[in-house]
Inverse folding.
């Protein structure tokens, strides 16, 4: 029993010895190190030696590096842009689908060049439904909403109705069905004798077919069809495709088609901001001019996304559309054909995309059908000229 007690005592002593003789590392303000026993540490501290965290501080740089520096050198590092608080070096950025991320400041410009913005409002768009309700959505959702019957402007969400007695009124599209059932009509009564002022001099109604996102592998088929029918159209081209499809671009120009700008890489102009938009359009137009000798005069914003500041920066008219075939979504020639032929009226601008084979199939039927109906198929600039022209910085979705 006594022997066991001694053994326990011996173990306690053995455990205590290293504790009482523990070593401590202390630092001078200049970073020198000294290892002393914990018993002596108190007196060294009184002589101006410190624990490590009293002498060193963790700091961060704008590109996310972290390092430990002496407190006496802290102001020198701060002059070079390093900070103790990493939050001072990070910025919240937003992308067009509503994702937000904290980005080190050194990488902010790179992100913004790729379409990230500083405030969520810059990547949101207000849309109006057919009853006049407004909702703000992320730009990524805009195309889907437009396909579901939302509109960018109150004007587009309304429709003008006519009765047989020469009365007309403008109502929300949601209200129009009931009125149509009561005998109101979408088309005005035929004019008695004089032709409407906006019919071109040769008397034929005009329509501007437009093709976005090309040139592409189906552009030639569309050009063949336009050429065969003596028709003109407008191609809003994407700059980074022009190298691959330079022959198609040149042929568009040679056939007298209008070439417009649809950005360099299909980035949203509202995400690029005013100066980004100006640079993007210039880069695209420079390339078109280099390849064809003709400089585009009109712009179609990707996703139809625009605001006053990017329109002003662009220095050109923004051309939207009032007949959206949704050809990119349905990829169905019948559906594209019907979208045009069911609605088309004098002064309309029709949106299609020359990068889909079913669209080329549809165009081969749409163009002769429109010609047969008596339409003159013209470029956007020709249509605008016949209707009093257009101005830089303004947006147009038809020329009635
Ligand atoms: Ni597009």
């Amino acid at each position: 029993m006594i022997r066991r007690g001694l053994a326990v005592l011996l173990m306690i002593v053995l455990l205590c010895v290293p504790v009482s003789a523990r070593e401590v590392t202390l630092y001078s303000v200049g970073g020198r190190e000294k290892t002393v026993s914990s018993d002596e540490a108190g007196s060294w501290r009184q002589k101006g030696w410190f624990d490590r965290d009293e002498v060193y501080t963790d700091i961060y740089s704008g590109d996310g590096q972290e390092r430990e520096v002496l407190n006496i050198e802290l102001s020198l590092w701060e002059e070079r842009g390093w900070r103790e608080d990493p939050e001072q070096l990070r910025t919240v950025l937003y992308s067009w689908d509503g994702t937000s991320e904290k980005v080190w400041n050194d990488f902010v410009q790179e992100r913004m060049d790729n379409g990230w913005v500083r405030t969520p409002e810059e990547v949101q768009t207000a849309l109006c439904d057919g009853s006049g309700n407004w909702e703000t959505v992320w730009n990524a959702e805009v195309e889907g909403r437009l396909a579901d019957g939302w509109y960018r402007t109150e004007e587009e969400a309304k429709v003008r109705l006519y009765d047989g007695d020469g009365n007309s009124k403008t109502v929300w599209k949601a209200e129009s069905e009931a009125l149509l059932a009561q005998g109101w009509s979408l088309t005005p009564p035929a004019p008695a004798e004089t032709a409407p002022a906006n019919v071109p001099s040769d008397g034929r109604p005009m329509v501007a077919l437009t093709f976005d996102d090309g040139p592409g592998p189906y552009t030639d088929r569309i050009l063949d069809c336009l050429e065969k029918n003596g028709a003109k159209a407008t191609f809003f081209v994407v700059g980074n495709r022009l190298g691959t499809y330079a022959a198609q671009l040149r042929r568009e120009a040679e056939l007298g088609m209008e070439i417009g700008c649809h950005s360099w890489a299909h980035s949203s102009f509202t995400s690029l901001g005013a100066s980004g938009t100006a640079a993007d359009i210039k880069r695209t137009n420079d390339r078109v001019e280099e390849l064809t000798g003709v400089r585009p005069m009109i712009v179609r914003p990707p996703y139809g996304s625009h605001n006053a500041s990017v329109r002003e920066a662009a220095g050109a008219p923004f051309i939207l559309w009032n007949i959206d075939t949704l050809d990119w979504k349905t990829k169905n020639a019948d559906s594209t054909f019907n979208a045009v032929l069911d609605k088309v009226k004098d002064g309309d601008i029709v949106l299609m995309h020359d990068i889909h084979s079913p669209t080329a199939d549809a165009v081969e039927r749409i163009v002769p059908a429109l010609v047969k109906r008596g339409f003159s198929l013209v470029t956007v600039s020709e249509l605008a000229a016949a209707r009093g022209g257009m101005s830089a910085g303004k947006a147009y979705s038809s020329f009635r």
About this structure: The first helix runs from residue 2 to 20. The chain has 15 helices and 18 strands. The chain has three domains: 23-84, 86-156, 206-396. Residues 23-84 form one domain.
